[in-house]
Amino acid sequence: MTFFLRAGLLLTGLWLPPLILWPTAVHAQTEAAPARAEGEARGAARARAQRAPVPPRFDIELEAPDSVRETLLRHMELERFRRLRRLDTNELNRLLLQAPDNLRDLLGTLGHFSPVIQVDPLQAPPTDAAVVPADDDDDATDALPSLGTVRMRVDPGPQTRIGSVQVIFQGDIATLPQAQVQREAIQAAAVRRTDQPFTQSAWDSIKNQALRQLTGLRFPGGRIGNSLADIDAANQRANLYIELESGPLQRIGGIEVVGSVRYDPGISERLARLSGLTPGTEYDLERLQAAQQRMAASGYYDAVFVYVEPTDNAAMLPVKVQLREARRQKLVLGVGASTDSGARLSVEHLHNRVPGIGWRARSELRLDQKDQTARTDWRSPVDDKGWQWLTEAQLSRLDDSLTRTSSQRLRWGQGQDGETLDRSVYLQYDRARVVQYLPQLLPEAAESSITANYAWSRRRFDDPVSPRRGHGLAVELGAGTTLGTDRQPFTRTQARWLGLWPLDRTASASDDGAASNLGRLALRLEGGAVIARDNAPVPETQLFLTGGDNSVRGYGLRDIGVPSPAGGVRAGRYKAVVSVEWQRPIWAENGVRSPWENVLFVDGGAVADRAGDLRPKWGVGTGLRYNSPVGPLQVDLAYGLETRELRLHLNVGFSF
């Protein structure tokens, strides 16, 4: 229809009377001369822009310490005039008279307020060729000979250090009792900067940090009312003053959702309230960020923006949520490889709102050289307390060197995923059948069980994507019985813990902690136990194996287990894993931290049917980390002390 409509409009234009078109032609002729002139001007401008660049009109020789030399060369005023076409000797000499003041100002931004600066008179070039002035239309660069050499010597003198930092509070923050901790935190962060070198960037950083701490909690409309850097050049000390005006205390109001079409807006409202954004609570930027991250991780939305608009009045601030919803269904095809399982092909289907029940369903088929898994996971929308119903079904086949394990799993229960705390309660059915490869296949009886389980995990990391400090703990408890003709009770428990510590005390006390030269230490502990009679037919999938990229490096996936009489290993009832890793940043040549890190590690793991028989197998190695936006990319080369072989391990992202 659109094509025919456009064609109709075109035919209508062809039948316009000639008397209507004539004045338009006359108007075009009267405007031709100005248009031609404007076109010529634009052509001349383009020609000038396409000219060959002008070579430097003069050279600069600067004698200065390396700590200031690069900054002076990059920002001095003389640098801006080096390629000026119309620059002559007289103008350059005038600029040289102003150069000491310009250098003194630049050194002041670096904390040097007592410099000794010497600028020599302009030294003419060695040739006697006369200077040929070049007009704007001259494209010949050889008509612009060098004007000579400028020589400067700079002794920056001692660097001024920060003597004191005083923060003065104005507004509600100065009197409210609940703001006392906030006041003390702002003042303490500022005081930690004392005795550090004073620079303009450091001064800006101190002010920005104080303002972030002010506006991040209770007072989003806060501002810096006044600031002063009092420089005592004789004693090389800088006394700093910051006046913070907080304005009135602001509280969270109602939630306004914009962009909800496919899904119930109540989902985003509940997620916001579960992140702490309830009406009447004090404004907290971290809660807004937590709500935004939680909504984005829910899978219902492609983009989320959560914000408030501060006012000058002590009013309830409405929380505005802008959404771009994800499509109702999504199909993802994946091709990859890992050092543990080789090449991998995966197909994943996601339905965010299953018709009839409104649940979210994720189904996946993954095929690689050792593992083949088909799984579907269905979850209901979260309720007002953050709980949701969940059900899962999984079929898998694991092929190791001498065994093949076929298993089925069904799970039903409830789960609660929080910002730092996750919990789940569920019933689980397991069935496993193990086949050992000998001169002939010897099938074993299939084993099955049903268990009631509780899982709990808590994360306290500074960054969920690329953490630098913090710790996490996860515990799983289960109790049930085996099924079939021989029914026996058993219990299963598993725990893991990860801790990250910056090794530099100053860095660990600062806000970012990222500037530590010593890096950080990572300690990981894992343990598991199945308590049952020796003859209890516990399914193989309820027992333990270890080894691989995320457990004991230097060994293959599930290579550490209980030795089998037929060769290879089988799963055991007890597991213990320990890993110590030193993560140290790699610095760039200019002193800036690069996204790369070097690591040294020692891993150990053991699996046995009795706790007293646990004998760890060790792996040592080194590797590289690249801190990407999606998490660390890991490349490790490990040596297994038991196997006496080197193995390459690759991993992407941080997970706990």
Strands, helices and their partners?
Elements: H1 2-14, H2 18-30, H3 32-49, E1 59-63, H4 66-75, H5 77-80, H6 89-109, E2 116-119, E3 149-155, E4 161-170, H7 180-191, H8 200-215, E5 223-232, E6 237-245, E7 251-258, H9 265-274, H10 285-297, E8 301-307, E9 316-325, E10 329-338, E11 342-351, E12 360-368, E13 371-379, E14 387-399, E15 403-417, E16 421-437, E17 441-443, E18 447-461, E19 470-482, E20 489-502, H11 505-509, E21 520-531, E22 562-563, E23 569-570, E24 574-587, E25 593-608, E26 617-628, E27 631-640, E28 645-652
Parallel strand pairs: 1-3, 4-6, 7-9
Antiparallel strand pairs: 2-3, 5-6, 8-9, 10-11, 11-12, 12-13, 13-14, 14-15, 15-16, 16-17, 16-18, 18-19, 19-20, 20-21, 21-24, 22-23, 24-25, 25-26, 26-27, 27-28
Helix pairs in contact: 7-8, 9-10
Task: Summarize this entry quickly.
With 656 residues, the protein is of the alpha+beta class.
Characterize the structure shown.
The protein is α+β, with helices and mostly antiparallel strands. Helices cover 21% and strands 42% of the residues. The protein has helices spanning 2-14, 18-30, 32-49, 66-75, 77-80, 89-109, 180-191, 200-215, 265-274, 285-297, 505-509; strands at residues 59-63, 116-119, 149-155, 161-170, 223-232, 237-245, 251-258, 301-307, 316-325, 329-338, 342-351, 360-368, 371-379, 387-399, 403-417, 421-437, 441-443, 447-461, 470-482, 489-502, 520-531, 562-563, 569-570, 574-587, 593-608, 617-628, 631-640, 645-652. The strands form five sheets. The chain has a 17-stranded antiparallel beta sheet that branches. A three-stranded mixed beta sheet has the order 1-3-2, with helices on one face. The model is unreliable at 1-33, 129-142 and 506-515 (pLDDT under 50). Helix 7 (180-191) packs antiparallel against helix 8 (200-215) and helix 9 (265-274) packs across helix 10 (285-297).
